[in-house]
Amino acid sequence: MTVRYLILILTTRCNLSCRYCYNGNETGADMTPEILGRAFALASDGSEPLHVQFTGGEPTLRPDLLAQAAEEARRLSRPVTLAVQTNGTLLTPELLALCQTQGIEVGMSLDGPPAINELTRGGSRESFEGLRLLETRGVDFNVTAVLSRANVGFIADLPLVLAGFAHARGFGLDLLVKKGRAQVEPVQVGDLAPNIRKLDERLVLINRQRTRPLVWREKELLRDRMAGHQGDFCHACRGESLAVRPDGWTYPCGQTSDSPEFLFGTQTPNATASSLIRLKLTGPHCRQCALHGRCPGECPSRLHYNRGEEAFLICELYRALNESLEAVLKKQA
Fold first, then answer.
1. Domains of the chain with bracketed CATH
2. Are the beta carbons of 99 and 107 closer than 8 angstroms?
3. Which of 95, 94, 75, 91 is nearest to 130 (CA)?
4. Residue 272 has pLDDT above 60, yes or no
5. How far apart are CA 327 and CA 325, in angstroms?
């Protein structure tokens, strides 16, 4: 397989205990330098750009391993981009200097205002200190929020939280994956649309005041599809992504790591193993949907783990966004 998206799970340890963590309560372990080198060997072939995502657990628990991984990635003979996903609680000036030197993009995991983030994730005081450190050090960052029943009523506050950070570049919303700890419930059908519309209204107002607008990932994805641009939801949909755990076991993506049905093998991906390519967002309602033919689709691993109504919550999100976009177009006409 040709790897275009490499996910390195540098550690399965974490300093927080998010109520919805899809990794559950597994024993913590760190990736060894040997496994790290073998992981990069799997992604060394090809001349097309490679994106390397450092994740965990909490990858900043091992800043030394993060530094080593960044150096090894830069030695590959193909164009490489790097990113780290962190809860922000352990950020330091030294770690941010590493990110700036190596060109590592920073993604923050944050579920809303401090009180809501504390409810779902914990460590809010430290996470917001991390945000302030990113700002003072001049490091651009994006935010990813997990949408659940616990925070959906407050998700419209997310752009307000980010409004005062000049180095905040945007945010994305990940629907809850029913895997692992699952101590919070998925969003209820009907609750998502009004909060998505409210979020979009606030985002528009806030962006009028910003020099550089906040980018909402799902909104931009929908705009691309409405403009006629086609593409898969992610690299895993094309069989081009690979996640490597600290023990060397490989999977098609981070969310499927530790699921036996998606196990590729140890350091040698098995092309005959079950993958995510076959999982598509489709149902009897699709042909009647206003977005038929231009739907951005859904994360295939979420489709696997979420069953019933939860599998189609993304449809409610995109339809609500579509209504907002069409309303703007009508005003401009």
1. 1-333 (3.20.20.70)
2. no
3. 91
4. no
5. 5
